[in-house]
Specification:
The protein is globular, with a radius of gyration of 19 Å. The relative contact order is 0.17. It has 8 helices and 17 strands. 29% of the residues lie in helices and 35% in strands. The two termini are 27 Å apart. By secondary structure, the protein is α+β, with helices and mostly antiparallel strands.
Length: 286
């Protein structure tokens, strides 16, 4: 078990998780990692022992940042949702509390799932262009850790006032589609920012979904998020979806791409699906 102890709740919940895992029918080698740049070498050392299961504790960014190293190793993944949004855990149906998530590890089942890719970088759940990367690039250090989702939403409201629509270009040549948009979501799961936004996306569909929120004014984005939070049918009125194994995506102007909350690329990029590449512990089907 490797826990990002600098994630919002990681330090507080690490000991609780260790205590609860004493009841599992197998031993767990637990590591609390306080420096984010030590997560990767800690995981690599753990993988050298050829474990059957790797438990990652943290937010969506932690999962996406480390999942690249699990593919092809034969180790299955389990998730302790310790972040702000926990969109990946939500897409898998994993409880967001520590006892519930550990119960899935003890009594759940393995599910073979897809991962998304931006160019050659795997991601677990959702990448985006528009307001989310703008927030991720500019949010003050420690704000999410100390104030949680309320702090994140407050900063998002501030960045919203500085945000501008942009042009999305999907495909190339004769197949190219151009449209004016206020947000783009590249999804392997239904949730983004902790909200169910992309109904058509699934972790085992074998396709990537690119969802664009169309519009020339930022109020269209606010309307779409409100309708999505309230689960109104009107949430579909502003969106258009593109699906496929691989999609070339550009923007005017070029923009940063947030991958599960971390800005790791800039347009143009190729979004694609890596089908059935990893086993994950999920709740047992009833």
């Amino acid at each position: 078990m490797i826990v990002n102890a600098k994630s919002r709740r990681g330090q507080d919940l690490f000991e609780q998780a260790c205590s609860l895992m004493k009841g599992l029918p197998f031993p767990v080698d637990a590591h609390a990692v306080e420096e984010p740049d030590q997560l990767e070498p800690t995981l690599k050392r753990a993988l050298a022992a050829k474990p059957d299961l790797v438990i990652l504790g943290g937010g969506d960014g932690t999962i996406s940042g480390l999942v690249d190293f699990l593919t092809g190793t034969g180790a299955a993944l389990a998730v302790l949702p310790l972040g702000t949004a926990n969109s990946f855990a939500r897409s898998l149906g994993i409880p967001l509390d520590i006892p519930g998530a550990i119960d899935v590890i003890a009594k759940g089942e393995l599910r073979r799932i897809d991962l998304g890719m931006i160019d050659n970088d795997y991601f677990a759940n959702c990448a985006s262009m528009g307001l989310s990367p703008q927030i991720a690039e500019n949010i003050p250090s420690g704000l999410k850790r100390w104030f949680g989702r309320a702090g994140y939403l407050g900063w998002a409201a501030y960045e919203f006032t500085r945000f501008h629509p942009f042009t999305l270009i999907v495909g190339e040549g004769a197949e190219e589609k151009r449209l004016r948009v206020v947000e783009v979501r590249i999804a392997n799961g239904r949730f983004h920012g902790g909200t169910e936004l992309i109904d058509e996306a699934s972790v085992d569909s074998g396709e990537i979904v690119v969802q664009a929120v169309q519009g020339h004014a930022r109020r269209r984005l606010a309307r779409n998020w409100l309708n999505s939070v309230l689960r109104r049918e009107a949430r579909h009125e502003d969106t258009i979806n593109f699906t496929g194994k691989s999609l070339r995506i550009a923007t005017e102007p070029p923009l940063p791409v947030s991958i599960d909350g971390e800005v790791l690329a800039h347009t143009p990029v190729t979004a694609r699906i890596a089908a059935a590449v990893i086993d994950v512990m999920v709740p047992r089907a009833s």
